[in-house]
Design brief:
By secondary structure, the chain is α/β, with parallel strands linked by helices. The strands form 5 sheets. An 8-stranded mixed β-sheet has the order 12-11-8-13-16-17-18-19, sandwiched between helices. It has a 5-stranded parallel β-sheet with strand order 2-1-3-4-5, sandwiched between helices. A two-stranded antiparallel ribbon has the order 6-7. It starts with 5 loop residues before the first strand and ends in an 8-residue tail after the last helix. Bound molecules: cytidine-5'-triphosphate. The site of cytidine-5'-triphosphate (CTP) has 15 residues, from helix 13 and strand 16.
Length: about 400
């Protein structure tokens, strides 16, 4: 996701410096080339060797060492960066940035960069609430600096409150957001994901193998690209995506109600959920006890949420999924027409590397005009972005309410 990106990670002196190691790992794993700059006090908390080993680049600590290079080091770092992240950022560092003080390598480099800067503050709750700090933060925000807000919790100083550095996974997500194109700005994207569970009794249910990974990847990608995102999710083991309004549901009937409650101002709907087509006719109040006779369970049909949306879609773009085990194109094409969709992502879930539970997918995209696009084996995060690219192309063709 970050292949070819140059990121400068500034680390300042706070106990959360150890969490910057985890952030570095996430950035390098996603393909970024990361250059770490540490302040003097950061080195009291974590040794530069840790960052050097994980980034596979020299760690920069000293302004004057860099100046002795042929090109002026801090300027070259500043120029090279696609993104600057400062995590953790102390009140002192933020104060310096807000006042234009450039007295060490980190502050000098930030001052010289034209790249976007993402700041992840970490400090004592009273410092965080101090009006001087608040003013500094507001000033930087006004100048376009992005902030990964700290969270509340037990602070290393013994106090309880806001000031704990944001989770590295969220800072990573905000970094992706900072680098993403904003071609879905102004859109409200409604995504469904995961399976539904249809209860038989208090301990059993009918469901399917959907993990929710594809739908969650789409929700995250749409948010990065500037959309307001609502995710209606069946039960999954995944963390709710940061910055996305998530409505958890269990059954198909609940999913239908949640979708219909959110559909009014949605401009783009992507139905990745694997909705159970049937539910038990009766949900037993008490656990069904076994005996020697065979057991039959009567199932009744659930509403087809996507088909209902197809009837009321108006100018919204409507994308459906087709999970098949045979005659993929034929079945997917039928869903495209019968459910009045603009696009279908179809996959053969029996293929290795595709469909339920995998981190990867193999799919075909079908369009109304008969076009079919093959999407070979790839990560679901990558596929989510391709799907949204195609939606943006549909938008350019004049589909959708706000779209020029
Ligand atoms: N879908 C839905 N409500 C249902 C069933 C399916 O909204 N009750 C949606 C899914 O979210 C997906 C699309 O319809 O976007 C296709 O789902 P799929 O399970 O592949 O097919 P079905 O329409 O259920 O048909 P079949 O099970 O016969 O393949």
């Amino acid at each position: 996701m970050l292949e070819g990106k140059e990121i400068v990670l500034g680390v300042t002196g706070g106990i959360a410096a150890y969490k910057a190691v985890e952030l570095l790992r996430l950035l390098t794993k996603a393909g970024a080339n990361v250059h770490v700059v540490m302040t003097k006090s950061a080195q009291e908390f974590v040794g530069p060797l840790t960052f050097q080993t994980l980034s596979m680049n020299p760690v920069h600590t000293d302004l004057f060492n860099l100046i002795s290079e042929r090109e002026i080091g801090h300027i070259s770092l500043a120029d090279r960066a696609d993104l600057f992240i400062i995590a953790p950022a102390t009140a002192n560092l933020i104060g310096k940035l807000a006042s234009g003080v450039a007295d060490d390598l980190l502050t000098t480099t930030v001052m010289a960069t034209k790249a976007p800067v993402l700041v992840a503050p970490a400090m004592n709750v009273n410092m965080y609430e101090n009006p001087v700090y608040r003013k500094n933060e507001e000033k930087l925000k006004g100048l376009g600096y992005m902030f990964a807000e700290p969270v509340s919790g037990a602070l290393a100083c013994g106090w309880e409150g806001k000031g704990k550095m944001q989770d590295p996974a969220v800072i990573f997500e905000e970094a992706l957001c900072a680098l993403a194109k904003k071609d879905l700005a102004g859109e409200h994207v409604l995504v469904t994901a995961g399976p539904t569970q249809e209860e038989l009794d208090p301990v059993r249910f009918v469901s399917n193998h959907s993990s929710g990974k594809m739908g969650y990847a789409i929700a995250r990608a749409a948010r990065r690209r500037g959309a307001r995102v609502t995710l209606v999710s069946g039960p999954t083991c995944l963390d709710f995506p940061f910055g996305v309004e998530t409505v958890p549901v269990i059954s198909a009937m609940e999913m239908r109600d949640a979708v219909m409650a959110k559909v009014t101002d949605a401009t783009l709907i992507i139905k990745a959920a694997a909705v159970a087509d049937y539910r038990p006719a009766v949900r037993q109040e008490l656990k069904i006890k076994k005996n020697d006779a065979p057991l039959s369970i009567e199932l009744v049909k659930n509403p087809d949420i996507l088909a209902e949306l197809g009837k009321i879609k108006g100018e919204r773009i409507l994308v459906g999924f087709a999970a098949e085990t045979e005659t993929l194109l034929e079945h997917a094409r039928k869903k495209l027409t019968e459910k009045n969709l603009d696009m279908v992502l179809a996959n053969d879930v029996t293929q290795a590397g595709a469909g339920f539970n995998a981190d990867t997918n193999i799919a075909k995209l079908l369009f109304r005009d008969g076009r079919v696009e093959d999407l070979p084996l790839m990560g679901k995060e990558v596929m989510a972005d391709i799907l949204l690219d195609r939606v943006v192309e549909l938008k350019r063709q004049g589909l959708g309410p706000n779209w020029a």
